[in-house]
Design goal:
This protein is α+β, with helices and mostly antiparallel strands. The protein has helices spanning 2-27, 36-64, 71-102, 107-111, 141-209, 211-229, 239-254, 282-292, 329-345, and strands at residues 237-238, 261-266, 275-276, 299-307, 311-319, 350-355, 359-367. The chain is 61% helix and 12% strand. The strands form two sheets. It has a five-stranded mixed sheet, with helices on one face. Helix 1 runs antiparallel to helix 5. It starts with a helix and ends with a strand.
């Protein structure tokens, strides 16, 4: 749809420019006594070569040379073509001038010659003006044609290049949106397999020990699966559902660890009715559990979320363990997260990483 609008705008602009070139010299001509038909024919004699030059440039030189990277060939072809048409215009004007000079004088025609044909013209009383009052000699027709040819080629080339750039940017935006959708699908598939397998194993071990807690875990897992499968098909979800998913995920992950692991979650009590892209926090929280938990010593994960009127701030800090904490995330993981944030928010976000010897910190701020 946007491409069609661009094409319509391009055609409209081109038609407008050519109408201006055709009628402006006629409407504002100095010789008001000259017949309109003659003025139109004179102007068409100038415009027809320009139209030919325009079509050759638009349909041959620009697409075949310029847009294929042959800039030098394009420039040489354009100047050669302009020179060819300019020489043709000069020879044509010279031929017309010699033909007029060769015509024999006719007294009867001179008597009927209108006032505009006299060298000096006439004044308001009908008297002939002396010849020395004529205007200075105008620009030669071939020079006038050369100027118009350069302007027309420059205008057309600039217009086509601009519209090509606009279409390229539109295509880039479309591909970026497709990329965001693809990343969302990947995130959804990454959360499911290992997490589901580990959670089911934990619930299985809870069935005989604490059946009530096992039932609660099954309900939370069911809600998460429903969110993963059905409620994230659109580009945006509610902040409340995203936080509920985050809470369920962390509660189920707690089933895997003993008292040596400290997991603190600080979420706002009042959640505004805002929309945001789904799974915006998932990879960050997954990274904290993947690299911040030690099975041999004490470790911690602190997750804090603050929500203001137009901004959400998420802080995640986890201990660094001997299983490569932060190393993977600081490479490919952080780059993928940052790319997704750029695609979603442009420059309107903050994403800071602080990698210390003892801990790994993430500070994310996004607009709501």
């Amino acid at each position: 749809m946007k491409s069609k609008k661009i094409k319509y705008s391009e055609v409209t602009l081109i038609i407008f420019v050519w109408l201006v070139l055709l009628f402006t010299p006629i409407l504002f001509r100095e010789d008001i006594y000259s017949p309109l038909k003659r003025s139109v024919l004179v102007q068409l004699e100038i415009l027809i070569p320009l139209i030919l030059l325009f079509f050759v440039n638009r349909f041959i030189l620009v697409p075949k040379l310029l847009f294929r990277g042959n800039q030098f060939s394009f420039i040489a072809a354009v100047f050669g073509l302009i020179l060819f048409f300019t020489i043709g215009s000069y020879l044509y004007d010279l031929k017309i001038k010699n033909a007029h000079q060769a015509e024999p004088a006719n007294v009867s025609e001179q008597v009927l010659t209108p006032p505009y044909a006299y060298p000096g013209g006439v004044d308001q009383f009908g008297n002939l003006r002396p010849a020395q009052t004529r205007q200075p000699k105008s620009i030669p027709p071939f020079a006038n044609f050369l100027i118009f040819a350069i302007l027309i080629v420059g205008f057309d080339t600039g217009l086509m290049s601009s519209l090509r750039w606009i279409e390229s940017e539109n295509e880039k935006v479309r591909l970026e949106k497709d990329n965001v959708a693809t990343q969302l699908v990947l995130l959804r598939s990454q959360v499911s397999p290992h997490f589901l397998m580990n959670t089911l194993n934990n619930i299985h071990s809870l069935v005989d020990v604490n059946s009530k807690e096992a039932k609660g875990a099954i309900i939370k897992l069911s809600k998460m699966m429903r969110y993963l499968l059905y409620e994230t098909e659109t580009e945006r979800t509610t902040l409340k559902r995203e936080i509920e998913f985050l809470e369920s995920y962390i509660d189920l992950m707690k089933l895997r660890y003993n008292e040596k692991v400290s997991i603190n979650l600080d979420l706002p009590h009042s959640i505004p009715d805002k929309l945001l892209p789904p799974f915006i926090f998932t990879s960050l929280v997954e990274n904290a559990f993947k690299h911040g938990i030690s099975y041999r010593g004490e470790s911690f994960i602190d997750i804090t979320m603050h929500i203001s009127e137009n901004e959400l701030n998420l802080k995640i800090e986890n201990s660094k363990t001997d299983n490569g904490a932060g190393s993977e995330f600081s490479g490919i993981g952080i780059e993928n997260t940052r790319k997704r944030l750029e695609l979603l928010y442009g420059n309107n976000y903050k994403f800071d990483i602080l990698d210390n010897k003892e801990s790994f910190k993430v500070n994310l701020s996004i607009p709501l």
